[in-house]
Amino acid sequence: MKSIRLLLAALALCAASVHAQTSPADAGATQDKSAQLLASLKPEHGTIKLPNGIATLELNGDFYYLSPNDAERLLTQGWGNPPGDKTLGMIIPQAVSPLSDQGWGVVITYNDDGHVSDQDAAKIDYTKLLKDMQEADESDNAKRKQDGYAGLHLVGWAEPPYYDAQSHKMYWAKELKADNANGNTLNYNIRVLGRKGVLELTAVAAMDDLPKIKQEMPKVLAFTNFDPGNRYTDYNASTDKLAAYGLAALVAGGIAAKAGLFAKLGVLLLAFKKFIIIGIAAVGAFLRKLFGRAKKPAA
Fold first, then answer.
1. Considering 143, 146, 172, 179, which has the largest number of Cβ atoms within 10 A of its Cβ?
2. Model-wide pTM > 0.85
3. Which of the residues in the chain have pLDDT under 70?
4. Pair 239, 145 in one domain
């Protein structure tokens, strides 16, 4: 996780300059590679059984699904993320290319820490929670800046957290800012609570895209559900594991949750796809040179 955050800081510092230095020939070559990548992807439509066998997507005509392998190729080759982080696939809007300036997608992951109780749903002070999260991020920023990297800042709620007790689905959106970045980033999160874990859906876009994302994400909420036997109401206290945290910690990033690619502010890495689609090779070379001199960071 630390390596992802360091990588993000480096991207924040160099993405704009790399973009400016890209020659027309390089841009043309990158566009050709982008077209080849898109042509090689295999969109899936309709009813999709997720690879872990516990949940199903009932996609409408507005979206298609990419398998974990295709999703990884889009995330790495198309959006410039480091390889190795596995997902359950991605949900992509049909109307726009994921490699365009307006492109976006929903990354699907699963957290198997256990059944997350919703008993604290009505007790959470989200204003205080936001302040706590901002203070934690600033503490992290002090160390990042000490190490010579740009800071990352949680600006505020782009959409305040809301829990639907009937469907056991929670969503919220965060506005994020990286030092030296040209614009703010939107992270729109959906969490579907299940019997033994949480299905995590994370959409990443620019803040200007918030109205569009707000319009589209309820559709994603509607067609994403656990299968019978794995739903929230199927929880058996005598046999199933109970997570060590509730909804507040889920929003904050999960005190006991796994630290994966999309945990807490690590997800901001995806936001730089708009900067690094052009000139990604140069960014990669810069990062290889930067991190090649350093010891491998702790996870």
1. 172
2. no
3. 1-30, 81-82, 149, 254-299
4. yes
